[in-house]
Design a protein that fits this description.
By secondary structure, this protein is α+β, with helices and mostly antiparallel strands. It is built from 12 helices and 10 strands. The protein folds into 2 domains: 2-42 and 257-379, no CATH class; 50-241, no CATH class.
Length: 381
């Protein structure tokens, strides 16, 4: 029966093409929507990914870290250091800054400014393209991520170079290193890294300048255990590196319209695929009524014919799914490197489930029609 089912399916090339096209289009929409959603969501905790620290300590006034900064007291770093199980603690500044490259036209660009602890440089990125972390101890030194090197130049084809200077808050900064960050920030602003003491001079002065405290547990303790101790002892919010990502993602989902937009895209894809595929497959069954009637007249059980129809729908659906994944993967492959579209295996598996659901709905419509076919139809003119 499998061979007969496939022969019937591919014998109707126009109907198969329409069925496959509907599922292909639905797959493209759903994969694109979910990939875009995950890509944008990842920007909400990009700073926590790019800076390496087991524990992040933030103000108790916020329920997440990366996108809702609330400065701490300068003395909070000493309170964290006094907690049992803390191996080290270092203050960190994170904020927005305006960069003006005077030698290249003086156009201002937004960046994310990171001020690392002046003594330890704790949390610094490790993947250097040029220069080294120790170069940050030079006068007016800053380290820039690769994306910002191109964005800060009026001509992206001619990015900034080591040794060039720019201004932040009318103060000179000299590029001494380039790093590759693994996650893009919201708005693709790019990063500028420097020491804490220098960073607070590159932005307007405030009474409290410590954004977060980074910490690490002693070898005999886990990060989660020490984070709980810090919260209990100081009243501050302490997150593990994994906890900060989850907290920031939850905050972003609750406070951003992006999940609604992504859900709308995925929902439209599912609806379009269901309507096109269901209608096409129902028409396919109608045009094969006499063939199905012959099989019923020969004594084929309704259950077996139902499995045959389900097989036809699933085969067409998987072909459409494969084509859709291939097309959207090709599009994303040629997209700019800073595109938030990222095809990941969980996305593909998540989309496969509704695609199979579309196939099941289409098969159900066909089965209902098949169940009403009378075997005597083969003897009618």
């Amino acid at each position: 029966m499998t061979a007969i089912a496939l022969k019937m399916l591919f014998g109707e090339r126009a109907k198969v093409a329409m069925l496959v096209s509907g599922i292909c289009f639905a797959t493209i929409l759903m994969v694109q929507g979910l990939s875009l959603g995950l890509g944008i969501l990842a920007t909400s905790y990009a700073t926590a990914v790019n800076l390496k620290a087991p524990i992040w300590v933030a103000s108790p006034l916020i329920d997440q870290v990366v996108m809702n900064n609330q400065p701490l007291l300068d003395t909070d770093v000493y309170r964290v250091r006094s907690v049992e199980g803390v191996a080290w603690a270092a203050r960190l500044f994170v904020g927005g800054a305006q960069v003006r490259v005077v030698d290249r036209g003086g156009v201002s660009q937004n960046v994310t400014l990171i001020g690392l602890d002046t003594q330890t440089l704790a949390g610094a990125p490790t993947e250097f393209i040029a220069g080294s972390l120790n170069d940050l101890r030079q006068t007016d030194a800053v380290i820039v991520d690769a994306s910002a090197m191109a964005r800060l130049s009026p001509d992206p084809a001619v990015p900034l170079k080591i040794g060039e200077t720019f201004e932040m808050n009318d103060r000179r900064a000299r590029i001494v290193g380039v790093v590759q960050t693994s996650a893009a920030t919201h708005g693709q602003a790019g990063y500028v890294f420097t020491t804490y003491d220098r960073a607070v001079q590159y932005v307007p002065a405030q009474r409290k300048m410590t954004t977060y405290v980074l910490a690490a547990p002693m070898a005999v303790h886990t990060a989660a255990e020490v984070a709980r101790r810090i919260s209990d002892a100081t009243g501050l919010n302490a997150f593990t590196s994994d906890g900060i990502r989850k907290s920031s993602a939850r905050w972003f989902i609750r406070n951003s319209p992006v999940p609604f937009v992504i859900g709308l895209i995925v929902g439209i894809g599912f609806a379009v695929g269901t309507v096109i595929s269901g209608q096409t497959f129902f028409t396919f069954i109608l045009e094969n009524t006499r063939h199905l009637g012959v099989l019923r007249a020969m004594g084929t059980q309704t259950r077996r014919l139902a499995r045959m129809i389900l097989l036809q729908a699933m085969v067409a659906g998987l072909i459409g799914y494969g084509l859709g994944v291939g097309i959207i993967s090709l599009v994303i492959a040629v997209a700019p490197a800073n595109s938030p579209l990222k095809v990941q295996l969980p996305v593909l598996m998540a989309v496969l489930v509704p695609v199979l659901g579309i196939c099941a709905v289409a098969a159900l419509l066909g089965i209902r029609r098949m169940a009403r076919i009378e075997p005597a139809i083969v003897f009618r003119s």
